[in-house]
Amino acid sequence: MLGGMGLLSWTPRSHAAVISRTFYITEGFIDQIDGSSVYFRGFSSNSDTLDIPGEALIVQEGDTVEITLVNTLSSAHSFVIDGVVDSGSVPAGETRTVRFTVTTPGTYMYYDKLNAPHNRLLGLHGGLAVMPSGSSDELYPGSPTFVQQYFWIFHDIDPAWHDRLRRGLTPNTDYVPRYFTINGLGGRPPGAPGSGDPAQDAMHDPRTALHGHVGDRSLVRILNAGMCAQSVHTHGNHMEWLTQNGVIRPDVWKKDCIFLDGNMGALDVIYPFETPPDAWPPTDVGTYPMHLHSEMSQTAAGGYYMFGALTDIFFE
After folding, report:
1. What domains can be seen in the chain, in order of their start residue?
2. Which residues form the Plastocyanin-like domain (predicted)?
């Protein structure tokens, strides 16, 4: 079963299946809040779109996944999930299909490994969720349970690097990210252009912002496609910390701030949607932020505060 990046839907099956998907490797420009237009490449759903990140794939342990790659660009690219599949180099203008069987439940990043890390940084990345066989509410057999699940894919963008790569050149300056996104979007503070528009505002994007009533425990599969290490911080509730970089933790800690490695770091956490313990007067409704604890990640273009990688958590 396939879902858009962010909120995932899933119904368990009693049998394995073959899941097929076509990704078009495309390129284009995306306008930023300061008026700049930045070059990207993506694993896209159509030849005339640019999807950053690529669509999420949610499958079940034992499924066979078939990915057809259509390289529309003038350079070679690849599709890799570390430890699972490597398409090898797909030359410019060519198409290749790869098949692989998923055997271990968990959260994975798919990405273009060629010219590493440049193609991944240009936008060629996405998420794969593998559910345990027959389960609808566990990350791995015996894990704490949840009722809904999301992807949060963080990214940081240096437009100078993107421009040199567009021209076929190697970046020759220090990496200085100026834009920070979650699931391809930045935040928009109230009153700003695009505020409240789910196509522009990560704080109101239903794939990204957490929505729930008390008891709607939410698994969040967190991936870092960028270079910068981050610290993920939630308000309202502490997170239940299940894994780090694909490794199941021996104990489930509750923390409100968890370190996320740069360069493909990964976390799995549950936001429990419990009555916020510090709210006064006590309440089961309200809105709380999620943001990163590196100050630059909350900005865009070096000064647009609250236009970075942040979202909201809605108790409804």
Report:
1. 18-131 (2.60.40.420), 148-315 (2.60.40.420)
2. 52-132
Grouping H, G, I as helix, E, B as strand and the rest as coil, residue 298 is helix
Which alpha helices (H) appear in 86-210, and where do they start and end?
118-121, 159-166
Distances (CA, A) of 19 to 63, 72, 124, 229, 264: 7, 23, 21, 33, 25
pLDDT in tens, 162-209: 999 999 999 999 999 999 999 999 999 999 999 999 999 999 999 999
Taking the C-alpha atoms of residue 175 and residue 162, their distance in angstroms, rounded to an integer, is 11
Both structure tokens of 74: 């003038």
Distances (CA, A) of 133 to 12, 13, 102, 128: 7, 7, 11, 15
Q: How far apart are CA 30 and CA 103, in angstroms?
A: 37
Sign of the CA dihedral with 131 first, then 136, 140, and 141 last: negative
Do 71 and 23 contact (CB within 8 A), yes or no?
A: no
The answer for residues whose C-beta is within 8 angstroms of residue 280's C-beta and 6 or more apart is none
Taking only the tens place, the pLDDT of each residue in 86-97 is: 999 999 999 999
pTM: 0.96
